[in-house]
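[User] I wish I could look at a protein chain and see how it folds. I have put the entry right below:
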Amino acid sequence: MMLKKLFTALNLIFLLVLTICFFRTNPLNAAELSADVVRTVGQEVINGRIYIKGDNFRQEMFMGGKKQVMIYRKDKQMAWILMPENKMYMETPTNACDQNMPQTDQEQIENKANKKYLGKEKVNGYVCEKYLYVYHNKSTGSMTQWFSKKLNFPIKMDFDSSSGHMITEYKNIEVKALPDSLFEIPSGYRKMSLPGMMQQMPDMNR
């Protein structure tokens, strides 16, 4: 049971790092929006909801039947993992991002990869320009991106590298104003460490 809880905790942190890597390397000048996010890593599919406002984002997902929340605050250079059921949170500095992760900022990509335009496709209701990027660093691999000029945001990304395959797609996109409270730690939450987080993780055998 402890090993399964450790795996769950580390998997949650890994997903947080992946998301932070994306938003650290992609300028958040997209429209203020919320969307369902479907992330496929290998054979595992993780569903959730994401909220983007300015340079901050909030992502919600369910793991082991329990809701987990991740908040990234660029102004504080900090990210938080919240466990609403237990009113607990863990924080991690955003320099945890692996600098070898594929970058998504358009100028940075073009400096580090060969770019090929593949045409236009409609993805989840938005006309997107489809591009293939093959990175100069072979270990970084390649990325196919469906970019919406209307949202100034990639609606779908398909990464293929030596470390694995990951697809991220945004669906049911809603462009609307979001309250600042979504990007704050709620009152009454207490800070915890990784061991404390593991103790509160759901029993995956249930």
In short: Residues 98 and 173 are 28 Å apart (CA to CA).
